[in-house]
Write a structure and sequence with these properties.
There is one protein chain. Helices cover about 40% and strands about 25% of the residues. With about 325 residues, it is α/β, with parallel strands linked by helices. It has a single domain, classed as Ribokinase (UDP-N-acetylmuramoyl-L-alanine:D-glutamate ligase, 3-Layer(aba) Sandwich). The chain has a ten-stranded mixed beta sheet.
Length: about 325
Amino acid sequence: MGEPSIPRLDATAIGEGQLRLDTAVGHPLRQASELSVTVAGAEGNVMGLLARLGNRTGLVTCLPRSSLGGKVADEYHAAGINTDAVIWRASGRVALYFVEKASPPVPSRVIFDRAGSCFADLTAADIDWGYVADSRLVHLTGITACLNDSLSAIVLRAARSGRAAGQLVSVDVNYRAQLASPAQARERLTPLLEAADAISCSRRDAKSVFGIDGEGSTVAQALSQRFGASTVLVSDGARPAVAFASGRNLSAQPPATAVVDRVGAGDALVAGFLHGYLQDDPERGLQLGVAAAALALTRYGDQLHTSLEELESLSSSLGTDIVR
């Protein structure tokens, strides 16, 4: 028998490429005269940062052959994401979301405009399943699972077939109340999480969607026990991020950070953690993830432009705050 083939990619994901449009602080959308435009999308954010950290990544998404679709693809390509499996349509629309920036005590607000996008119309027949399978890890999110029935079936197939073939399967709960009720999200996510090796979830989402409450380490272990995942990452805002990995409890305290932009910090945490996870080093992953999230909070836009050297330097400056 020959040697087993080496996967083409370290990680791949299925998710929607979007454009994010931001108002200036203090300018509600109805009064705004200018909007800044950046590329967004949870799965693309994670694949982009993993690529910048030295991993071979790919993204399966669907875009129209237009200036807007080209902008999304160009930025993903610039991040280092392999875009060979992008599904192109002759026409259609790119999903948008608007961020109405505000200063405390007024919260910033997110408004989605993604109905009828090219990605929303995907079916399983559109996907290059060989491409999805040709990676060590497949990353999926609850956002895509909750968009519609067809996309829910696609990500569930990716998780189950990946698990059966020996791929690592990562699922980020990433609950969005504008997309589904807690009960609807729980129904869509339960079979997906049951196929996962690694789960990422905020403490707030664990309580809202699954009724699991308690300290971060308690939540991580409860999610692991309920769904059978060997590795669980739990975020909790400014409180310690925790991971339950192969029976070990890990914890890392985020640094005090002057927040410029909150959107994308959770994806940065997940990407940093998965970098370590792919190297069988969840402790290092947690350190890098906390550093990446802190850095993301200080920079505008969903995509975090950084390097492994910068994150390692920042992680070292945060001190030895891993607790086992």
